[in-house]
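Reproducibility note. Readers wishing to regenerate the assembly model reported in the main text can use the exact inputs given here. Chain order matters: entities are listed in the order in which they were concatenated for prediction.
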Amino acid sequence: MVRFLVDRLLSLVPVLALVLVVIFSLARVIPGDPAVTLLGPGATQEQISALRLQLHLDQPVTQQFLSYVTGLAHGDMGRSVKSGRPVFEEIMRRLPATLELSVMAMLMAIVVGIPIGVFSAIRANSWFDHLVRVISLVGVSTPAFLLALILQLFFGIYLGWLPISGQTSPFIFTERVTGFALIDGLIAKDPPALWDAFLHLLLPTTVLAAFLAATIARFVRNSMLEVMGQDFIRTARAKGLSRYAVIFRHGLRNSLLAAITVIGMKFAEMLGGAILTETVFAWPGVGRFMFEAIKNRDYPVIQGATLVFAAMFVLTSLLVDLLYGRLDPRIRKKMQ
Amino acid sequence: MSRFKILSALMLACMFVAGPVFSQSDRNKTLVVAVSSDPANLEPGTNKAEPIGSEIIFNVFDTLVSWKAPAFQELEGRLAQSWGVSPDGKSFSFNLRPGVKFHDGTAMDAESVKFSIERTRDINPYMKSNFGLIESISLQGALDVKITLKEPMPVFLSLLAQPQAAIVSPTAAKKFGDKFSVNPVGTGPFMFKSYTPDTSVVLEANTSYFRGKPKLDRILYRVIPDASTRRLEMEKGGIDISQQNAQLSSIPADELKAFKDNKDIEVIEVPSQIIRQLEFNNNITENSPIKDVRVRKAITYAIDYDGLLKGVLGGTADRVYGPLTTNSWAFNPKMKAEAPNYDPTLARKMLQEAGVKPGDLKFTLYSFQGSLWGAMATLIKSNLADVGIEVTIAQTEFPSYRALQTAGKFELALDGRQPWYNDPDAHITIGYLSSLANSAMTFRMPKDPALDALILKAQTTVDFKKRKELYYEVQEAIANKVPGAYLFSPKLIVFKRANVKGLVVNSAPPLNEYWNVSKQ
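Running the prediction on these inputs yields the following structure tokens for the assembly.
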């Protein structure tokens, strides 16, 4: 087990190195550089050159790469070209917001998706099953920004129940401790702030969860059907086990294994990919930050954020495998 | 009932009973401004003409001089109570207002002015060339400072009105070091309170402001990147002001229509000095039909200017007739009289005279991205098709577009300039000086020492009347060359809730000042 863990953690190094080389070159291959985008269309060559000098962009690419890697070895991810502040600090500042959104979305998607998937499997080909399949298809196909707009209009404007942008109300000042609005509200023992944070979470979470819930429901349904058709289920039923035991203890538990992999990977994707949702809801997360950085050709941020996403992806995949091993003794054996 | 149930019931009750931290009277003294991206660098030394940070600078700092609202044609003293220019036009002497203090309590004086300007010149690549004109800054007294330039440059006064020329507290700048960009300290009507990245900036009123205490207690900038979310928040009352920062690439007409029926929202339209044009690659080296002035002229007569202004832009822009907008003090009225009008018959005739048959000419029309540029390009494509010229539209992402434009790899392009200071020099010198043709996105004028000399003379002539006459000459000389088709100047559009009064919208640069704003 320890050997397995060490191997997987060590694999982070070549993965991140490869990612770094790719993103470093890709960012510089795209036309335009930070000096050009920062100064805008009205800038003269003189102004751009002066800024390039300040940003060390006049150095040859290999030297820039070496400087960057040396910096990384000292834990320095460089400074954002736009803000001048350390990249690591900027990313860590925004990561909690994205994590909060992703975790809540995943929870909502699981709570909604799994039961629906199970029920669809049990009542396969019933009207419920067909209805769910249609809704799932719609959920998976609707662009995030369209769903976001619809929810904003309906719940935010028409009904006026929910706020339509931001992580918290701008008029509620809670001391930032963790960056998770819910947790900070709890730490501050401030019920209005906690409630406010919760309300702000609802709409963006729903948008993110919709896609994921639909995917989970379909996955669980198909997986359950496959599992329920197997011999050991027939044996369990023949043994006289209750319906509940057959479906949940034997059926669901086995089909969840495959579902966990999907959920885990989708979660890792959400961490970097919730750009549209974060933009529409003015959610101060890393997805949006990365998108702005690409627009601004903010090389240090692009590189740093990509490395962080890659590391999170690898770690999430490791966690999923460990969880898998926890649930499935056959896998656990292979790990040891 | 278990303790847990009682506790959760109480908590739930609290949530409904306790309201938000701000009372209604607080809300009426707080102005909420929506901006489209995180502001970068909230002080003159590090802000490189980034618009949102620049607006914050305008409200947290003061400049030596500024433009008098609402016409913005005349300069008035801000931190300087009077000034004089030497007869040779090289030295500017400022007598500073006594008793003005920075937000940290230190005094604003000649030393702080010298410190600020030299600091900005040294660390800001954007201001390096502007302030590079300075030969020396000397202290003539506690409140008297003399700035001597290397050459006479009347435009220097206008440069001093830019946000990047604002005066900073030397004590604070030294204390905060490179963190000064998120802890700005100036003399302005509002003091910096807090900055939450990607979320908000909070400014609080400077009650001892020398022009008088602001009517608001607080300004809250909210970062809302999505335009439709800003619109919804405006309708919901979540924001009070939304400037169309993205108007440079999107069409305001749709939003105007949406807000027209809402009596809680007012639209402010202010003329700007922005110019948008269809430009030719005037110093193209390859053999190209646009080298023929008759072809260029024909194209300018083929464009439906009214259709563009009324149809595409919905009345949110003014016609531009030449190198300067009509609201510039140096605008030559002859430009309007002699500007081309929409006449496709005449255009076809001109093309015929130039030996061009319908279908002969094929161009790629390059432009910026965004729905506004797309709509302009589409109209022009159809106008030119009417006179037998085939056009393919190529909207290109900004950095690539700049690269190809400055390398001269085009024949027709849609382009424009937003002047960052209020002087004809902002459009003319960089746009039309042939020696600067490849140094920026310019009209790429062909080598013309006579025109260049005229432009430089107009730039450096001290006498105001003479300078104006020279700019009249410059405009005529440029117009004769038909470097492009001047299309329009978009108005600056600011959406505000009806209860917001006293807003001042500057034209160049296009930024809001909130000192006199109140909410009823």
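We highlight two features of this model. The first helix of chain B runs from residue 3 to 17. Chain B has 18 helices and 23 strands.
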